[in-house]
Amino acid sequence: MRKRAAEVGLGAVATLGLGAPFVLISIAQQAMPTTMMAAVRVALAAAVLVAVLMVARSPRGPVGELSGLLRRHPAALTFVAVGSAIAPNLFIGAAEHHVSTGTIAVILATTPIWVALGSIALGSAARGSAAGGAGERLRARQWVALPLAILGVALAAGAGAPAGSWPWSALALAASLSYAASALVLRRWLNSESALTVVAAEMVIAAGVLLPVAAAAGGEVRWDPAAWVAVAVAGIGCTGAGWLANTALIQRVGAAASSVVSYTSVVVSIALGVLVLAEPLTPRVIAGTTVLVASIALFLTPRPRRARPTLKEPVVLELSILGFLAESPMHAYELRRRISALTGHVRPVSDGALTPALRRLERRGLLSRSESAESGGPPRIVFGLTPAGRGELLRRLRDADGPDISDRNRWFTVLAFLHHLDDAAEQRAVLERRLAFLEEPSRGFFAEGTPGADASPFRRGMNAMAGDIWRSEHRWLSGEIAELAT
Known about the structure:
mainly alpha, elongated
């Protein structure tokens, strides 16, 4: 529940941070060129974020944090800085002189589609590599929601441009692709890093590039208190806090799911345009906003919750099959031997249980089978994991919750295969759910203060052993979570 609330909060801050600049830019451009405004925005964001790093009192200090991140991920960090803060500002700034704002808004609204397609490609490449991994896949209703949202943006923004301006639209498309690529790189290579440090480094790099560009471009800059306040709010509140929230959201829920902020921010932009800039609320704007809101609702509608398997259902057995076959193909005898070593002391594994489970998983396209020639004997059936099977394994590990966390035997099975998640942040999230479960107030017959809990030496012995196990697991989880965070 707390995790969901945190994600909603990040989404709200990111929505305001990405939606408000449209109004602020309109005010700021009355006193300065677009390039200068963009340079001042990122410079202010960089200054504030570095100051926050100083207040955080990291042992290495802000310079150490930023230089350490740059040493660990020089290519990824530079790519994200260029792709999210430098290139889009320059592309959009140049396009605005030739293409209407509405057309640019529609082109930028395609960003979630490029993110979704790139995420699938990235996941396919990862599955084909030695490291494995699965991409973020959208559900069918989310694929339907994306073009509907673009239609809503087109109606609300009143997109349209003279034929001669369409070549300049390629710059807006380049900005859209740039945003998408930087989100994917962030999710793939910078996901386990501190969002604050990543965004601070982005803005420092961007300021170092855009300030000289703005100075070289020149243009009239005049004193207008309202314009400079707008730039300050855009830099600190939007480019700083808004982009920080957006980065943290990408790290938590993925590039594809977080990209819906592109549409929620448009709704905020339309509302602010009507309320602050007195833009007309025409029937087309109302229709477009209605389509846009409906598309967002369709995109965010949660997947229908499947009934949780009861302890009698073979959830542990299926997870064990998927986990061991992710390590290497094997025949049923070897698979049963491995599973028995893991869980056989709790639930005996027989051919009568294993064979139906293998058939179920095979019918669902999660397993493949092939024949292996054995010397001096008949061929044997060898089972392997399909790409869909690997995706299912990673989903079960990533989404482990409820009985998977609270039931010790199911938890140990999850723990046995958690290394297959190649994302440290996702591993950490699973461990944090187990730690939160351990730290819940004591319940049950043997809880401290329960009448009769110490009525016999045997009950006291059970309490003592349970306490030792609790402390040991709590100590290990806390240490491992801290290790994964760094």
